[in-house]
């Protein structure tokens, strides 16, 4: 699959370069030949393409992204299957095309910068929380909020990606009871126990991301995923350093409560608390947005979408 550069998928998407890979597939920067715009094309790997659960999750990811319309979530473009590709031995390709985001992953940004200034961290937190709030209002729980699933654009906005293991409230699950879904470093205590993830679980994970942005270190570290998961269930986190400021320290501490009932209940509630916490931190990362950049930043993005 790594030698597919130049191949045209579904008579529409021309593969340019591979930009990511994971447990189920590869992601390619591609050109949409209908619009001549770049897209991110996710393609299922050969060895999992015939697995029914993997197929169902991939279709659910496509359906989920297609149902969400928010500037903080990568926009859906297309989903489908292409059979009998002669160049690939006649096999079938299953693909998902989404908006191509020019920027870098938050994980790369943290690695390069070591830690982010509190004001910039709050920008990323609020953007992501508002995206989560939109998903939560639609009954979607992300279940895998982490720096590598948050992309930061060149102008500083954050976009949430990878809805591959979402939970749709009220629908049958695609995992067995007690199965742990998510990434240990950012896993809520209830997920670590094998309980169902909720919107408050996503809030916890985003708070863990915020802690890492501000300190440059993981909330809990361990020799293996199990020890990290146990820490999320049992250990109290070290408070943020004083340079973060009391409002931000209190914000993160509340969202990291072991009991999900004591956290903000969903992304929108968390975003409003972030907007309130940002005011004493100092000038915003985007000075043209005024003294309270939270709402103007979102409105500017929505106006930009309408112009398109």
Automatic annotation (TrEMBL):
- Would you indicate the residue range of the signal peptide? none
Please tell me where this protein is predominantly located: membrane
InterPro entries noted in UniProt: Kinase-like_dom_sf, Prot_kinase_dom, Protein_kinase_ATP_BS, Ser/Thr_kinase_AS
The top EC class, named as a word, is transferase
Q: Where is this region: Disordered?
A: 257-308
Q: What is its EC number?
A: 2.7.11.1
Q: How does it sit in the membrane?
A: Single-pass membrane protein
Which residue ranges does the record assign to the Protein kinase domain?
A: 13-275
The Swiss-Prot or TrEMBL record annotates one GO molecular function as: protein serine/threonine kinase activity
Q: Which GO terms describe its biological process?
A: regulation of primary metabolic process
The protein's superkingdom reads: Bacteria
Q: Biased composition, Basic residues: where in the chain?
A: 298-308
| Pfam families noted in UniProt | Pkinase
Listed SMART domains: S_TKc
GO (cellular component) term, any one? plasma membrane
Keywords assigned:
ATP-binding, Cell membrane, Kinase, Membrane, Nucleotide-binding, Serine/threonine-protein kinase, Transferase, Transmembrane, Transmembrane helix
Which positions bind ATP?
Answer: 42
Q: According to its UniProt record, where is this protein located?
A: Cell membrane
Q: What is this protein called?
A: non-specific serine/threonine protein kinase
């Amino acid at each position: 699959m790594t030698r597919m550069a130049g191949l045209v998928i579904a008579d529409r998407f021309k593969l340019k370069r591979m930009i990511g890979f994971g447990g189920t597939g590869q992601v390619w920067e591609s050109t949409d030949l209908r619009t001549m715009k770049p897209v991110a094309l996710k393609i299922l790997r050969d060895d999992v393409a015939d697995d029914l659960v993997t197929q169902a999750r991939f279709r659910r990811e496509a359906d989920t992204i297609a149902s969400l319309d928010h500037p903080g979530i990568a926009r859906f473009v297309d989903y489908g299957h292409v059979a009998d590709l002669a160049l690939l031995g006649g096999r079938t390709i299953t693909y998902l095309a989404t908006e191509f985001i020019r920027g870098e992953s938050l994980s790369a940004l943290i690695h390069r910068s070591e830690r982010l200034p509190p004001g910039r961290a709050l920008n990323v937190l609020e953007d992501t929380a508002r995206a989560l709030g939109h998903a939560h209002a639609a009954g979607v729980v992300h279940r895998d909020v982490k720096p590598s699933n948050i992309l930061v654009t060149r102008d500083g906005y954050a976009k949430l990606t990878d809805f591959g293991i979402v939970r749709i409230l009220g629908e049958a699950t695609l995992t067995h009871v007690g199965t742990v879904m998510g990434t240990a470093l950012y896993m809520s205590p209830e997920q670590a126990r094998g309980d169902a993830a909720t919107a408050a679980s996503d809030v916890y994970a985003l708070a863990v991301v915020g802690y890492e942005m501000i300190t440059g270190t993981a909330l809990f570290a361990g020799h293996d995923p199990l020890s990290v998961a146990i820490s999320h269930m049992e250990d109290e986190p070290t408070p943020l350093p004083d340079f973060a400021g009391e409002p931000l320290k209190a914000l993160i501490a509340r969202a990291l409560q072991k009991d999900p009932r004591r956290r903000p209940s969903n992304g929108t509630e968390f975003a409003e608390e972030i907007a309130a916490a940002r005011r004493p931190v100092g000038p915003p990362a985007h000075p043209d947005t005024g003294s309270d950049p939270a709402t103007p930043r979102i409105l500017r993005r929505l106006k930009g979408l309408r112009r398109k």
